[in-house]
Amino acid sequence: MHTDHSGGIELIREETDIPVYIHEQASISINGGKLEHERNETFYHGFLKQCGADASIHKHAQRYREINWGKVHYIKDGDRLPIGDDWFEVVYVPGHSQSDILLWNPKTGDAFSGDHLVANMSVNAFIEPPYPGSTERPKPLLQFRDSLKKVRMLPLCTVYPGHGEVFINHLDGIDKRFLEQEKRFRFIREALKDGAKSVFEICKILYPQLKGKMIFLGLSQIQGHLDLLELNGEVEANERDSVFFYRLAQ
Fold it and tell me: Model confidence over 1-26: pLDDT tens digits?
């Protein structure tokens, strides 16, 4: 659940009592209050440290703000929502966030894709904290790739994204995302050829233009790719002084 899509809900609801629908995975963010906010802040501070970055420089401090959206309807994969004079099916597509959904009309193929599918833009799979009760954080790039494969099977026609232009032929866009990821895998392998590096050190090689608090974008992108490389046995991680260093598997 990202504020560039949800930040105006309270203002809209001041003008009209429209219903709010959101994936059930976001319920903890909406109802968790200040404790959930602090849990998130603690996680991201620790993540930056594990990457070898400096939270005092590279972390954007998020101030707590209570969410008051009135009555929220929580939805899940396979639910149906009325939009206009028709029904759209909910497709859960975690990856970019843990609460991402795509809405599609099986009769027309029309779809509202949010941030999951965006024409001519590489979507970042953001690192997020473990869900309450879990000790392991999600692996967002693995989720994102599974979600892309899932949506690739749908006969979509016209796609209305959360950013940019309306587009058709979602298959080409999905294939392009996979090719971009494969390119990053190659860059990371190349960066590790001369020895182990932290996520922050890899980030400085791959994304030298990122500075200050924008560093998180690169760290998240790289960590997601390292998750998959580690799962495939291509890299190994070792911890030194609370920082994880990755090297090519022997």
Answer: 677 777 788 888 888 888 899 999 99
pTM as predicted = 0.93
What is the residue type of 51? Answer: C
Q: What residues form DSSP beta bridges with 160?
A: 112
Residue 20 is inside which H or E element, if any? Answer: strand 20-23
Q: Tokens representing 149?
A: 């494969």
The total of other beta-carbon atoms located within 10 Å of residue 43's CB is 15
For 96-155, write each residue's pLDDT tens digit: 999 999 999 999 999 999 999 999 888 899 999 999 888 899 999 999 999 999 999 999
Q: Where are the alpha helices (H) located in 85-169, listed in sequence order?
A: 140-152
Where does residue 158 fall: left (phi above 0), alpha (psi -120 to 50 degrees), or beta otherwise?
beta
Rounded Cα gap, residues 231 and 78, in angstroms: 29
Do the beta carbons of residue 188 and residue 225 sit within 8 Å? yes
Query: Letter for the amino acid at 4?
Result: D
Phi, psi of 164 (to 5 degrees): 80, -160
- Domains annotated for the chain, with CATH where assigned, are 3-248 (3.60.15)
Amino acid occupying residue 70:
G
User: Strands 20-23 and 197-198, how do they pair?
Assistant: unpaired
